[in-house]
Design a protein that fits this description.
mainly beta; Jelly Rolls; rod-shaped
């Protein structure tokens, strides 16, 4: 038998590990016979066989994703947008839903509201990825408008122009040559002075051809003849303003007096003047001022002569049978009925629109003019919830500001707002008219505000009819224009999104 050296045996014993882990580094561990760092090894992250999938790295024994992604089921995903992992790992959205901001939401047809309704990552776009467009028009013609910043804007329809006398509707208000034509009066006896009767007058840009009107009419711009009435049109050219007065018991110079300056018997009297309009007749007395007997001036108790010019006061001041002729009025406007209401541009939320200055016409007798308007208040996108494509429950305010004509009485006018777009639907429940409580004496305006509640899931746009009228048929009127403005806004604070 051979003896093994004791030293050799001891050396062999010292080299055995007894079958245990021989990895000594921090975080090291033996996996499949190999020492690995389970803090950083993608194949053994935090333990043997724990593999980090995709682009994930192993940090401190955990699989970690870069770029704000989250690690779920062996892959890097985005909990904010991933439909299968929306808001957390293994939290799938239902069919037809998309993941937005970590919540499953339902997609809708894209509309112009500043919101990604169809959840495709684009806002207010059509099927080709271009901004939404829609048809628009005015009385000038058709066009298109483009969705910008959540609102349709920049309609390409032809723009209105200042009205000129050219037999065209330049300002596109539905009226041709309104306010710019000349009144041409019939000069029956061809003396250059026209008949004031508007029944035989025409409105035109230029003088109509002689013989073109009724009874082969001839037209002039003057309307001061006093013998051009239909029954007396053949009295001749010698009777007109400025003619020489003859002693023939006729008012030859159309001044309301007969045979002034003719010889008479001193002390005799005769009627003079007219009772047309605001005038009252008087008397003339025959006097002798040293040059022989002659008729004196028309006068006497109650005598009211014609005024040299017409003023806009609802009266026939110049006593020619016409009231406020050629004054500022809207006699030819088409918006004096609800059915003929002037359609104003859409009023978007947090914006305002102003109506051009207009004048109410006094009409005849107790019949007074009124002006009608139609306006649509459009709900804006700025009340949309940022975490849910539904609007909050919030209040809206539609306000009309009515500046009465300068110098007019506040009691003469009334503004009414009707909460409907249909004339046949106006009733006590949707009628709101100004009272003394709506008067702002500092600004000299009427303020009429209507509040209504917004509704979740629905478009809260609203149509209104607006009427400006006299408070009573007998109210004193002003020929100066009024001003009208509309505002649409929201009130209160944005609440939680709709469920």
């Amino acid at each position: 038998m051979r003896l093994i050296s004791a030293v050799v045996v001891l050396a062999l014993l010292a080299g055995c590990s007894g079958g245990g882990d021989t990895c000594n580094g921090v975080g090291e561990r033996e996996c499949n016979g190999v020492c690995v760092d389970t803090n950083t090894d993608k194949q053994n992250c935090g333990g043997c066989g724990n593999t980090c999938g995709g682009t994930a790295t192993c940090e401190a024994g955990r699989c970690v994703c870069s770029g704000g992604l989250d690690y779920c089921n062996g892959a890097c995903v985005n909990y904010q947008t991933d439909r299968q992992n929306c808001g957390g790992c293994q939290a799938p959205c239902q069919s037809g839903q998309q993941c937005q901001a970590g919540k499953c939401v339902t997609a809708y047809e894209e509309t112009c509201d500043g919101v990604d309704n169809d959840l495709d990552g684009q806002t207010d776009e059509d099927a080709n990825g271009q901004p939404l467009k829609r048809a628009c028009d005015n009385l000038c013609g058709p066009g298109t408008e483009t969705c910008q910043s959540g609102k349709y804007q920049n309609c390409t329809a032809p723009a209105p122009k200042d009205e000129t006398c050219n037999e065209k509707d330049d300002d596109c208000d539905g009226l041709t040559d309104d306010g710019v034509t000349t009144t041409w009066y019939n000069d029956w006896d061809l003396d250059g002075y026209g008949d004031p009767d508007l029944a035989y007058a025409v409105q035109a840009c230029s003088k109509p051809a002689d013989g073109s009107g009724p009874d082969a009419s001839n037209y002039v711009a003057d309307h001061t003849d006093c013998d051009d009435g239909y029954s007396g049109r053949d009295e001749g050219k010698l009777i007109h303003p400025g003619a020489t007065e003859a002693c023939d018991d006729v008012d030859n110079n159309c001044d309301g007096n007969v045979d002034e300056g003719c010889n008479c018997v001193v002390g005799n009297q005769r009627p003079c003047g007219t009772d047309v309009g605001e005038c009252n007749p008087g008397t003339q007395t025959c006097v002798n001022l040293g040059g022989g007997p002659e008729w004196g001036a028309c006068g006497g108790t109650g005598y009211v002569p014609p005024q040299p010019t017409e003023t806009c006061n609802g009266k026939d001041d110049d006593c020619d049978g016409h009231t406020d002729e050629e004054m500022a009025d809207d006699l030819y406007e088409a918006n004096d009925t609800c059915q003929g209401a002037r359609v104003l541009p859409d009023l978007f939320q947090e914006e305002n629109i102003a109506v051009a200055d207009l004048t109410l016409y006094h009409g005849t007798g107790t019949v007074k003019d009124s002006d009608w308007f139609k306006v649509r208040a459009i709900e804006g996108q700025n009340l949309e919830c940022t975490t849910h494509p539904m609007e909050p429950q919030c209040g809206f305010v539609f306000q009309a500001t009515f500046h009465i004509p300068e110098g007019a009485s506040k009691d003469a006018y009334q503004l009414c707002v009707y909460g409907t777009a249909s004339c046949g639907s106006i009733n006590d429940n949707n009628t709101f008219c100004t009272t003394a409580a709506n008067w702002n004496d500092t600004e000299k305006v009427y303020l009429l505000a209507l509040s209504f509640e917004g509704t979740c899931w629905l478009d809260d746009s609203w149509d209104f009819l607006v009427e400006v009228k006299y408070a009573t048929p007998e109210a004193a009127q002003s020929c100066k224009p009024y001003d009208l403005r509309f505002d649409f806004s929201w009130q209160g604070s944005i609440q939680d999104p709709c469920p």
